[in-house]
Every structure is written in structure tokens, then in C-alpha cells.
Design brief:
Blueprint lengths: L29 E12 L6 E12 L3 E5 L6 H8 L7 E6 L2 E2 L5 H11 E5 L10 H12 L5 H11 L14 H13 L5 E5 L7 H18 L3 E4 L3 H4 L4 E6 L2 E7 L3 H10 L3
Parallel strand pairs: 3-8, 3-9, 6-7, 7-8
Antiparallel strand pairs: 1-2, 1-4, 4-5, 9-10
Helix pairs in contact: 3-5, 4-5, 4-6, 5-6
Length: 268
Amino acid sequence: MTTPLPEVSYAPFTTTAALATPSGGDAVRTALSARGLTKTFGLGSAQVHALRGVDIDITARAFTAIMGPSGSGKSTLMHCLAGLDQPTSGSVRLGATDLTGLDDTRLTVLRRERVGFVFQSFNLLPTLSAKDNILLPLQLAGRRPDQQWVDDVVGILGIADRLGHRPAELSGGEQQRVAVARALVTRPEVVFADEPTGALDTQTGAELLAFLRRCVRELGQTVVMVTHDPVAATYADRVVVLVDGAIAREVHQPTTDTVLAALRTMGA
């Protein structure tokens, strides 16, 4: 039985960077897309088809969750979409850029400057303060921070008073929020979250998901999250269910009941 995450609510946050979401008056656009995406591991009788001709469009300024049973290909799909892995065939486009045509050097630059990542492990540098961890991607890219954007991100995540602390002095939830801020500080076109609540307790996990949702609603970010948790998926605008390396179903404006029903139908 799935344990409901506690309801988390926050006062409205006003930011100069706030943008309209697809549910508003703006035209919906695609931030990321894949066509005919396949990924095969191994050779001969040991060959495994992790992705089987996946076509997907990721809507800009929206929160998309990718779900499926173990071995369904959801993590492989995320890795290919994020430029962390090369597909066997097919194409991935971030905006107008075809990722499958980039060499390793250009992929590294693209991931650093145009994509953000949030993982289960926070991957914070222990010797740096929270502020320095957040600004690290900009320093690596030789870019000056947009202070208004940094202030907006730190404000929405509620860590303004923790910036001088090192990771060991922060709670797990605070460390994860610092990791989210680091992912957002470059103003990436897409933020990928791989099981971001997996290492968190129920309350902290609910808070993090609410923060990600607010980043979409109030900062205009595009978020793609891989999760196995149907309750976590309800924070998204859309759930994509993978089975055996192919998209089997989608659920829009998901509830726990509709997500569970979709998973049962797909045998997930």
C-alpha cells in the first residue's frame, strides 16, 4: 500500500523571473524531443533492448514524470534525453540542437550550460559552503551569476539563511534543496531529477516535490523526473509510463488513483 505524502503548502512567492505555464495564455512549446529512440546493450543472445523506438515530446515550463517497472527503460530514457548516454539509434533534440550529433566535448558543455541534474545522492562538495556549491556550475563555465535569479531560486527553496553552512552542517532536506538550487542556477532549459526523494524521509520528500513544482509554476522551469512512486508522480503535470522500453500510456493531471490504475493496466 502506498503511503500518502503529507500535504505541503507555502505562501505565494513573487519573483521577477516568474513565467506563465502552459495552462496559461502562452502557446505551448516543446523544450526537448526524441524520435525513434533505441538503446541496446550486449550482443547476440545476451542482447537487451532497453528502449524500443521511443517518440516523446517534453513540454516547456511543465513537470513530466517518467514511470515504469524495474527494467522498463525509464532511467535509460532519462540518460539519453539528458545527453548522459548515446542512443543506439534515433535522435534527441534540446531546442534546436541535435544531441546525437555532438561529440563528447560539446556534450559536456551542453550538459553544464543547458541542463540541470538532481540525483538521490546530493553530490555536494564537503569543503564548500552551500553558496559556493550552488555557484560552482557558473564558476566552472566562467560565467558571472545573475544575482536576481540566484536570489529568486534561493528564496523559493527557503535556504537564504543556510548559505554560509557546509553540507555537514545541513539536514538531508537542506542538502537536497542546495542540490536543486545548483541545478537551477544556470537557468537550464531542462532539469532532470532521478528518484530525487529516494534518500529522503516522507516529509522532506514531500517538501522537495513541492519545491520542484513551484520551480515550474513560478520560475518557468521544465522538469523531467524519473520515479517509481505513484504519489510523487502526482506532483507532475503529466506521467509517461514505460513498459519493456516503449511508452505504454500517458496520464495528464495525475492523481494517485489514475496513476495506480495506469500502472495496473500496464502490469507495472
